[in-house]
Amino acid sequence: MSFAAIALEEKQRVLAELGEVKRLLSSRGLFAGTSGNLSIRVGDFVPESFDFAITASGKDKSLSTPEDFLFVDQDGKPSEATALKPSAETLIHCEIYKLTGCGAIFHVHTVMNNVISELFWDRKSIPVDGVELIKAFQIWEEEAHIEIPIVSNFAHIPSIVPEVTDRLDPRIPGIVLRKHGIYAWGANAFEAKRHLEAFEFLFEYAYRWEMLQQNRRS
Ligand SMILES: CSC[C@@H](O)[C@@H](O)C(=O)COP(=O)(O)O
Ligand SMILES: [Zn+2]
């Protein structure tokens, strides 16, 4: 489906939803120093051809302005003429949409997601055992064990993409960039937000549990 063929109401709905999520996450202090980016897909999904609304690059994400978002295509190119620049990390969003067909992707930097990525960097994943909130990912096994992938954080964003392709686990709706932040996604904004919240909870649990065990050993 071409971008022009997508109903105006659908585009407006997506922009309004993105604005709401941005306000809510901002009220929780999740966009420190202009960090973070958010996107929601619009229209039908075909891996070779889709569009999504994404935050413009470098903006103060605690403010709401008419220049907060723009639409881009599957390659991260603006879907229509605009003076706005898409997020510097748009190519990571493109890759996650292509691999998963999801409907929304939220990226935030938190001290906890940075610390945990370094704590478990040698392992290249964050292990979590049997915590109830794993069910937020629709993983219902008793005492489920999950590993949340961690990938390198290169300054050159296109170099991060192949690692995302390689490491993305279809069971786990998130991936952590080393000492950078998390990308969490879902079928829609509601799911992506639920996943983001669950990841941050699990990171704090994993960090505290690891510290407790290290204290016991010493
Ligand atoms: C200013 S620090 C954060 C950026 O380097 C980046 O990681 C980020 O999350 C926001 O970039 P943006 O281009 O605004 O989407
Ligand atoms: Zn970032």
Automatic annotation (TrEMBL):
Cofactor note: Binds 1 zinc ion per subunit.
Gene3D superfamilies: Class II aldolase/adducin N-terminal domain
Domain Class II aldolase/adducin N-terminal: 16-207
Keywords per UniProt: Amino-acid biosynthesis, Lyase, Metal-binding, Methionine biosynthesis, Zinc
Biological processes annotated in GO: L-methionine salvage from methylthioadenosine
Known cofactor(s): Zn(2+)
Top-level EC class: lyase
Domain of life: Bacteria
EC identifiers of the protein: 4.2.1.109
Pathway this chain belongs to: Amino-acid biosynthesis; L-methionine biosynthesis via salvage pathway; L-methionine from S-methyl-5-thio-alpha-D-ribose 1-phosphate: step 2/6
Positions annotated to bind Zn(2+): H107, H109
Any coiled-coil regions, as ranges: none
InterPro entries (alphabetical): Aldolase_II/adducin_N, Aldolase_II/adducin_N_sf, MethylthioRu-1-P_deHdtase_MtnB
GO cellular component terms, A-Z: cytoplasm
Pfam families: Aldolase_II
Catalytic activity reported: 5-(methylsulfanyl)-D-ribulose 1-phosphate = 5-methylsulfanyl-2,3-dioxopentyl phosphate + H2O
Example of a GO MF term: methylthioribulose 1-phosphate dehydratase activity
PANTHER family referenced in this protein's UniProt entry, alphabetically: METHYLTHIORIBULOSE-1-PHOSPHATE DEHYDRATASE
Protein family (similarity comment): Belongs to the aldolase class II family. MtnB subfamily.
Described purpose of this protein according to its UniProt entry: Catalyzes the dehydration of methylthioribulose-1-phosphate (MTRu-1-P) into 2,3-diketo-5-methylthiopentyl-1-phosphate (DK-MTP-1-P).
Cited HAMAP family: Salvage_MtnB
Protein name per UniProt: Methylthioribulose-1-phosphate dehydratase
Species this protein is from: Paenibacillus nasutitermitis
Gene designation: mtnB
